[in-house]
Amino acid sequence: MKAPFYSPIFSYLAGLVLLLCTSNAYAMDTVWLSKPKNELDPREAYPLELLTTALKKSEPEFGPFEIRFAGEMGRVRALRSLLNGGINVFDAPSQPEWEEKALTVRIPIKKGLMGYRLLLINQNQLTKFSDIQYIGQLKQFSAGTGFQWSSTKVLDRLGFKLVSGTSYEGLFGMLAAARFDYFPRGINEIFDEYALFKPKYSQMAIEPTTAFYLPLPSYYFVSPHHPRLAKRIEAGLTTMYADGSFDELFFRFYGSAIEKAKLWQRNLFYLENPLLPPHPIYDNPKYWFDPTQRQPLSATRSQLE
C-alpha cells in the first residue's frame, strides 16, 4: 500500500482550514447596549433579561456572547450610535425612521402590552376623568409625554393635546405641578412607577375607569453593520416562543400588572397608529397580548415566586 502523500504546503493549508473552523466555531459576539439613564427606571430590566435569554438560546448555533455597555443616551443619539457603530442593539417602540435605517428584529418584545395605556393623574382630578365615554372627551385634556418618544409623534398626529418634557423623572414632577392633566403609561410601566414615585408625589393617583390602546410595538433594533447579530437575536426569540420561555418571562414580569389593570372593567378606547409600517406580523395573534384572555392570577403568582 502506498503511503499517504504529505507536503509542507498541504500541511499548512490543512492547518489554516482547521484554524478558521475553530475560530468561527468559537467566535464571540459582543453586544453593545446603552447604559440605563436612570437607575430608578424600572423599565430597563425586562428587555435586558429577554435579550440575554435569547442570546443564550442561540448559543448552539451562533456560539458565545458578551454584553457590554456604552454611555447613556436618548433615542435620537441611540439611533445615531447604531448607525455609526457606538452600540449595536437598542430596544425601542417602532417608528418609521428606525425601521428605515436600522435592522428591525420583527418580534414584538412586549407583545404590544405597552400600547395599553392607563392614566396617572392628580387624585383631586378623579371626578373629571370618571365621566369619559368617548375618546374625544379625553382629547380635551392635556397629556404629558417625552420629547423623543414614539408615542408622542403618534398622539400628536391623532390630535391629542400634548405637553412634552425632556426628562423621564421630570414628567412626574410636571404632573404634580399640574403642568398637564394626565400622564399615559403602559400597563407594563404604571404600577412600578406609581410605587416608586408616589412617596415623592403624594397627590399622584392611577385613574380607575379609563384606558386606551395605541398600537406601538417595541422591537430590538440592530446596527446595519451587524446583520448576523440581528439574525441571532431573531433566532433566539423564535426559540423562546417555541419552547414557551418567552411567555413565561413575559408573565413573570407583567402578569401581576395585567391583573391589577383590570382592563375588562375599564372603558377601553382603540386608536389607530398612522405611523406604523404595515407588516404581516401584526396579523399573527401569537405575538400579541390579548386583553380578552385574562392571565389567571394563580398562574402569575406561581411564576413570580
Oligomer: single chain
Helix count from the secondary structure assignment: 13
Question: Biggest sheet, open or closed, and with what strands and sense?
Answer: 5 strands, mixed
Which blocks of ≥5 consecutive residues have pLDDT under 50? 1-24, 296-305
Count of DSSP E strands? Answer: 12
Helix content: 40-55%
Q: List the secondary-structure elements in sequence, H or E.
A: HEHHEHEHEEHHEHEHEHEEEHHEH
Overall 3D shape: globular
Report the structural category. Answer: alpha/beta
Output mean pLDDT. Answer: 86
In percent terms, what proportion of residues is strand? Answer: 15-25%
End-to-end Cα distance, whole Å, is 69 Å
Radius of gyration, whole Å: 23 Å
Q: Any chance you could write out the topology, listing elements then pairs?
A:
Layout: H1 8-25, E1 29-34, H2 45-57, H3 59-62, E2 65-70, H4 75-84, E3 89-93, H5 96-101, E4 103-105, E5 116-122, H6 126-130, H7 135-138, E6 142-146, H8 150-157, E7 161-165, H9 168-176, E8 183-186, H10 187-197, E9 204-206, E10 210-213, E11 218-222, H11 227-243, H12 245-261, E12 267-270, H13 297-304
Parallel strand pairs: 1-2, 6-7, 10-12
Antiparallel strand pairs: 3-11, 4-11, 5-8, 5-9, 5-10
Helix pairs in contact: 2-11, 10-12, 12-13
